[in-house]
Specification:
mainly alpha; about 130 residues
Length: about 130
């Protein structure tokens, strides 16, 4: 019950914040390399030394997942519904507090943990989840 409430609040805050936060353009993959990019993004997301998404989130196919953040994808909402564009998802992954001031998530781009290209690959992977 507690996690479900947190997921609902997170969704509402992210969706509301997206309407007021400007986003820059990002170079994301076109359709020709999408499968390769999705696989590379999944690898980065599961890599404990890079994205390390599994430290907090349960993801399909992941092992030893954390439970301090919502399982991804969240039930009842897709990344497309939450972010509308991959550029917005990349911006969120790069600096979550810019969209959601109380986000308890590392700023992977701002802190130079991941490059903009790596953030784009992870966004491709997350975008593919249904």
């Amino acid at each position: 019950m507690k996690i479900h409430l947190l997921q609902c609040i997170t969704r509402a805050l992210i969706i509301g914040a997206m309407s007021i936060v400007p986003f820059g353009a990002s170079a994301l993959a076109d359709g020709t390399n999408m499968t390769k990019n999705i696989d590379a993004g999944r690898t980065l997301a599961f890599d404990r030394a890079k994205g390390n998404c599994l430290a907090c989130h349960a993801l399909p196919g992941g092992t030893m997942a954390g439970d301090v953040a919502p399982a991804l994808p969240m039930k009842g909402v897709t990344f497309q519904q939450m972010f509308q564009t991959k550029e917005k998802l990349v911006a969120f992954l790069g600096d979550p507090e810019k969209m959601f001031p109380y986000a308890n998530m590392p700023a992977f781009g701002k802190n130079k943990v991941l490059t903009h290209e790596e953030l784009g690959l992870i966004a491709d992977y997350l975008w593919s989840l249904k």
